[in-house]
Amino acid sequence: MKKLISIGVVLALLALVVVPAVVAAYEVPDTYSKVPFAILASMFYLGKDILQALVDADFLPDNLTWLPDLMPKIGDWAMGPLSWSVDMLAWGLELGSEVWTLLNDMFDIGMPEIAEVLSIVSCKLLTCWADTNCTGTFVPCA
Length: 142
Known about the structure:
Number of domains: 2
Mean pLDDT: 80
Distance between the termini: 64 Å
Helix content: 55-70%
Structural class: mainly alpha
Low-confidence stretches: 18-25
Shape: elongated
């Protein structure tokens, strides 16, 4: 029973330290589509801090002490290369819109709205999260 209380106290103290640190280290995503990846990455960053506290408190087995070092690497991958998949999806949707427009014109299919829907979805995936977070000359939906 004492060990359970000790674990509870350690986790409560850990929450008081880790949550503010994770919030302070949070990176604002540049587009709406990156928000889920930012959330996923922050979970791995938080996991690193929790696992490190468990290692420091000697609650994690010795054969798992490498685990805290792995968490930020997975978080960085989720925030970086994994989030690029949304950019590629938006590019593919815009390509599909252009191809559909061409095919619709060539074969007189009579459904130009499909191209418009694909462009709207592509545009919204790349829309800036906030006015101050997008830089450069990129202007989606122009």
